[in-house]
Amino acid sequence: MPPKRKASGAIRGASKAGRTSGVSTPGAETPRSIGSSDEYSDQEIASESEVENLDKAHGKFSLAGYQRKPKAVGYDAVSHLFGKKDFSWLKLKPDHENRPLWIDPEKGLIILESFNPLAPQAQDFLITIAEPLSRPTFLHEYMLTTHSLYAAVSVGLNPKDIINALNRFLKTPLPDGVRSFIEGCTESYGKIKLVLKNTKYLVETTDPNMLQMLLKDPEISQFRVHGSEGTSLAPTMGGLVIPGTKNAAGVREATEIKSGDKQQGQEGEKPEEGNIYAALNEEDDDDDKEAVHSFEIKDEGVETVQKRCLELGFPVLEEYDFRNDEVNANLEIDLRPATQIRPYQEKSLSKMFGNGRAKSGIIVLPCGAGKTLVGITAACTVKKGIIVLCTSSMSVVQWRQEFLKWSNINPDDIAVFTSDNKSMFSGNTGIVVTTYSMVTQTRERSHDAKKMMDFLSGREWGLMLLDEVHVVPAQIFRKVTTRIKTHSKLGLTATLLREDDKISDLNFLIGPKLYEANWMELSEQGHIAKVQCAEVWCSMPTEFYEEYLKAPGRKKQLLYVMNPTKFQACQYLINYHESRGDKIIVFSDDVWALKRYAEKLGKAMIYGATAQHERIRILENFQHNPAINTLFLSKIGDTSLDLPEATCLIQISSHYGSRRQEAQRLGRILRAKRRNDEGFNAFFYSLVSKDTQEMFYSSKRQAFLVDQGYAFKVITQLQDIDKTPDLAFASPSERRELLQDVLVSQEDEEVIDDLWHQGSQGRAQRRKPKVRRTAGTLNELSGGQDMAYVEQNKSMNKTLKKNKKESHAFFKKLQRERDRRKQQ
Ligand SMILES: Nc1ncnc2c1ncn2[C@@H]1O[C@H](COP(=O)(O)OP(=O)(O)OP(=O)(O)O)[C@@H](O)[C@H]1O
């Protein structure tokens, strides 16, 4: 029986779903304080229509103007605990238990009960209309934003579809404020478009009043090119099938949502797909007849105009009608017939090509989930000139190879532009793969490089693929987008995170987030590996801790990284996982520590100063040589390393509280080849010195992964660690020596590899350590015996070098293949 009272329960303080249980279990069973049931009336409860104040410019609801009536809080024993988050005045629907969604009426925050039978459908819908914030096991959080609603509109949903579907899944009626927000946002989308025609940027609108408003706006008009105003007819649109899929882009998604909606209205009646598709196209056809008014803006004004339009509440739509582009030559490219893109790849692309045109934006997929193939499929859909920007010349080579692997592109039509290679494609259009630094460098260019750059900036490109968008500074994107004229941009990343909060800049520079995959779902489906995460707490010996307390910043850091207990934990875990047949990567940001660890444990290492040929040799050994199972890597291994053999990761030092780095590092084992073996798990350990700053950073670092549903176990004791053979720093004298060594290490020694420097391998190779370490350890100074040990162990990299001559037939074959490729 439905409960009688008006406000029977709602979301209370559930903002960190999954980590705290903040959701009340409303309904008749909820215990209530005596006498509370009749203490409030309709007038006393804040009306839903009061929650109307929206801050469209930021895509959020504003609290301003919202006054909760005092008596609404405290009607039962627990309400007061939830303070402003007590939304118990929202009425629950009688069958609320069958519905999976809660909503925060003030912020547009939606919470999904992932255990509800309707959760899969609701989740598909939410991915279409809202941005995922956190998706741990039981409760997922999504946020309605202007950008997410814009993406929903562009796959063919109208405000009515969104409101009806949301109403269907919600446990409470849809608050009026949220309804107005959806209507307000979705109706203003698409009113203004930014279009590139003959290398000129045009602002287009079908509404003459809107045109006047834009022309009169002082911020916009300063970038207007006078005398460029014109009127034309909008082009025709129609169904588009993305290569590697069977469905017209976006149609399936929109259809599912609309059909669900229809089912709600007429129980048992199956929707007819054809009709819905026809309805979508009908709407498109109506569009086609409209006149389009336009004016040109200067190249340097693009970002300001976009920002200003968003402030005015009319986000600019950047769309490329590539199928009607008769100015730019078509590119002969298709996916190879055997290529099948995965459902989540298809979903992400349908967000981009939802209405038959290419929208600019960012697709977020976990590491190893196949972003490259998503980019290639987008290129095969657009079939115009494509420019790919990568972070390193190694990635440039990989992208070219992937294009050749997955598509039928003629090798002559795909050129690379790096410091050592400036090839040009042969036909009148093609693909160019290059690095961000090649395009944006300001230094004097060589004749060839200048010629190539003039070529790149002097023509129109159909699509720009931007790899690893999260690492590139915003000003680099600004330079890229002003130098290279492209109709559409697709950014690819695993972690749309920046600690400097500059991520929203990408909305203007590239476009909104179009799709973000669910990591847990992909690992359940076997597309990425399942990972067990653990934080190992390593206590610090007293003498280390005393020094730690009084040491300055950098030394503090070195002390907690070089904590001998941590070293022993690392040794123990390496032994344990090597004996299980795992391949292990040990990460350290701190190069000083990296070298000491690797040398003492006799393992191979790669860091910024490791020459390219040596890197390749070590990586090959790690992958194929059963004797080399552990590899120490500095920050340069955080991204772009394809090591599907790796199954275990140990982190001994990291970059403060960087959530992005944590996720990127985890990504190194998500591609584990053995991921589909029965019962297989990859392992991710973070070694943390107890009671130091590292503990604070560590929990901050984990926030993103926790939001993706990963649970970190805390290990305080490693079983039988003291029985480890040759356990390092087991005696007090060894620990004392280590401490002295850390204390006398020089402050300005090369410490951390700069990732951006590694962006160009060429530069990284030439870069020398800033200062060579001159001071010895106390041991060395006193002619210490450990020196011989260090020298002997330092040579694991050298051992691999020596072994090169007696290479296994497999490596010889690899080498021959590489040589052959180079000659091509
Ligand atoms: N649809 C598909 N069918 C078969 N294999 C695929 C498909 N999509 C991706 N893969 C494979 O998955 C692996 C990972 O792909 P890719 O290197 O593009 O991942 P990524 O998302 O770019 O990872 P990272 O962020 O770590 O660079 C590759 O070996 C790729 O060939």
From TrEMBL:
Cellular location(s): Nucleus
Family of the protein in this entry: Belongs to the helicase family. RAD25/XPB subfamily.
Residues in Helicase ATP-binding domain copies: 352-514
Natural source organism: Thyridium curvatum
Keyword RNA-binding part of the UniProt annotation: no
EC number(s) reported in the record: 5.6.2.4
Coiled coil: none
Keywords carried by this UniProt record: ATP-binding, DNA damage, DNA repair, DNA-binding, Helicase, Hydrolase, Isomerase, Nucleotide-binding, Nucleus
InterPro entries hit by this protein: ATP-dep_DNA_Helicase, ERCC3_RAD25_C, Helicase/UvrB_N, Helicase_ATP-bd, Helicase_C-like, P-loop_NTPase, XPB/Ssl2, XPB/Ssl2_N
Catalysed reactions listed for this entry: Couples ATP hydrolysis with the unwinding of duplex DNA by translocating in the 3'-5' direction; ATP + H2O = ADP + phosphate + H(+)
Keyword Nucleotide-binding applies: yes
Domain annotation Helicase C-terminal: ranges: 568-722
One BP annotation, GO: nucleotide-excision repair
Main localization category: nucleus
Name by which UniProt lists this protein: DNA 3'-5' helicase
GO molecular function: 3'-5' DNA helicase activity; ATP binding; DNA binding; hydrolase activity
